[in-house]
Write a structure and sequence with these properties.
2 copies of one chain form a homodimer. Chain A is 67% helix and 6% strand. Chain A has 170 residues and is mostly helical. The model of chain A has no long low-confidence stretch (mean pLDDT 95). Chains A and B meet through helix 1, helix 4, helix 5, helix 6 and helix 7 of A and helix 1, helix 4, helix 5, helix 6 and helix 7 of B. Chain A binds a DNA duplex (28 and 28 nucleotides) through helix 3.
DNA sequence: ATAGTCATGTAATGAGTTACATGATTGC
DNA sequence: GCAATCATGTAACTCATTACATGACTAT
């Protein structure tokens, strides 16, 4: 049920339409909590039904601007402070590792080599957007940079692991 | 569609019933690909329908032992070598970080402090099962240890990050 | 005019969770 | 006899993905 809170979190910064939120998602939350357009719209509908957001304005082309309500803010705060994060790590990359014994050692090494390379690419990418996001002093940017740094560290240790693991096979 | 391959991967080691697989899951794959009992049973049904596994024996209490077929092995190998892992990282722990600006600095620091502590607990836990899994020379154990080491590194960099991030707030 | 962007929605399907239901067999 | 474990399944629901459908406005 985290999409709901992702939406509330963004609307807490500023009011927005579904369309606006979609674009915001793509440049911020998408890396930690992907969502599709249809999910967003239906979630907004549900949030409005339960009174956590209001339609605060209607614009051209049927545009609806949503604003978070007091109840919505309370729910967001509750989620932030009282609800324990549930770390469900689902990784088909690691799942494959369990079964590398089905392949030849060369193939297994190739797989891990590929993962190391992917991690390097990921690192490059993160470094490249880093400069881009260096400015921005609003909350979302400030804390977004913490998240970005998590990503950097993750990619780095993934690279190290894959390189190490490749050498473990033989 | 990875649950399917998780099941195929386990059945490639040895034939087993749904019940057996469930227990195997809990001690091996559960950390990278959790699954519930009902998911497992229905997946086994679908796999049997599509001929990727066979019911090779029936035992007491309606027990059905499943065995992977040639087609199943081919599908597993195909998935291992030709299908790119899709890294969908969904983390409500990181999602919360984006919105820490909604809280007081003290609360935000407390959140990150809690995450650091959790990572330490996780590390301890991993170290404790490490000794336990040190033996075992079958493929699943050998490669399972690679996965375990990934978990160790992950927990470690998570701890470092959380400690760092805590100090970034102020 | 027409291409591009703004803007919202529905339908179908698959994946995952929780809870319930049922009963056989084994070991003490 | 009884508790524990073995063993399979169904139902209801939520969450997520993909594809489709529709149309208004804006800038050139």
């Amino acid at each position: 049920m985290s999409l709901r809170h992702a939406v509330l979190g963004l609307l807490a910064e500023r009011s927005a339409s579904g369309y606006d939120l979609m674009k915001l998602f793509d440049v911020s939350l998408a890396n930690v909590w992907p969502a599709t357009q249809s999910q967003l719209y239906s979630e907004l509908g549900k949030l409005a039904d339960t009174g956590l957001v209001d339609v605060s304005a209607e614009g051209p082309r049927g545009r609806k601007e949503y604003t978070i309500t007091e109840a919505g803010l309370a729910e967001l705060r509750h989620w932030l402070t009282d609800v324990q994060p549930t770390r469900v790590v689902r990784s088909d990359m690691l799942l494959r590792v369990f079964f590398l014994g089905r392949l030849s050692p060369e193939q297994a090494r190739a797989y891990l080599h590929g993962q190391a390379q992917l991690a390097r690419k990921q690192l490059e990418h993160i470094e490249s957007i880093r400069a881009f996001v260096e400015s921005g002093s609003d909350d979302l940017s400030v804390y977004g940079r913490l998240v970005l740094d998590y990503g950097r560290r993750l990619a780095e240790s993934q690279r190290e692991w894959a390189e190490w693991a490749e050498n473990q096979i033989g």
